[in-house]
Design a protein that fits this description.
6 helices, single chain, mainly alpha
């Protein structure tokens, strides 16, 4: 299960960062490492800078409770979304077009992880 969480949470952060979601602590880590925030996605320094967020997202998606809420609709999904944002606060608010995409992507990531777990079972 953890390999599925790692794979899909890494993909989530790659997609999210491409859309302009800026994490409150990531920029400071990049500056500390002397990394260019606009470096290629595969630059190891850039990946290390976002790795803590991948691990934090994995902790949510690996939890059966939180993954169930991520897969739900209505108020249960909103609980997951609020917890995700609480644990991974934004430095900068997403633009109008990115918000719906981001919220949809949170649920899609849970579905992808569930499907991967099902295939491996």
């Amino acid at each position: 299960m953890l390999d599925a969480c790692y794979e899909h949470c890494s993909a989530l952060w790659t997609a999210v960062l491409e859309r302009g979601y800026r994490l409150s602590d990531r920029h400071r880590r990049l500056e500390t490492m002397g990394a260019d925030p606009y470096a290629q996605l595969w630059d190891p320094r850039r990946y290390i800078a976002v790795y803590p967020e991948i691990v934090e997202a994995m902790s949510l998606y690996a939890s059966p409770h939180w993954r169930r809420l991520a897969l739900a609709e209505g108020s249960e999904y909103l609980q997951f979304r609020a917890e995700f944002i609480r644990r991974l606060p934004q430095e900068k608010i997403l633009r109008r077009t990115s918000k719906p995409w981001f919220f949809k992507k949170l649920g899609e990531t849970a579905r992808d992880i569930e499907a991967a777990i099902g295939r491996r079972a």
